[in-house]
TrEMBL record:
InterPro entries: HMG_box_dom_sf, YABBY_C. It comes from the Eukaryota. Residues 16-56 form the YABBY protein C-terminal domain. Pfam families: YABBY. This is YABBY protein C-terminal domain-containing protein.
Length: 60
């Protein structure tokens, strides 16, 4: 029996990235040359997300 296809694959395309995923990808790319461990960089970017105007929870 072949494996089940995900709904995104069955629909013929990729699932749209959330605003959080887009933000994290952009901001982590900016910190690529930072010597800190990935875990610390991720925490720093997550803190930026909490205050970001791109965060739908902060939209006013």
């Amino acid at each position: 029996m072949p494996p089940k296809k995900s709904s995104a694959a069955a629909a013929g395309g990729k699932k749209k990235s959330s605003p959080y995923n887009v933000f994290m990808k952009e901001e982590l790319a900016k910190l690529k040359s930072d010597p800190r461990p990935h875990k610390e960089k991720f925490k720093a970017v997550a803190a930026l997300w909490a205050k970001s105007p791109k965060n739908p929870k902060n939209a006013k």
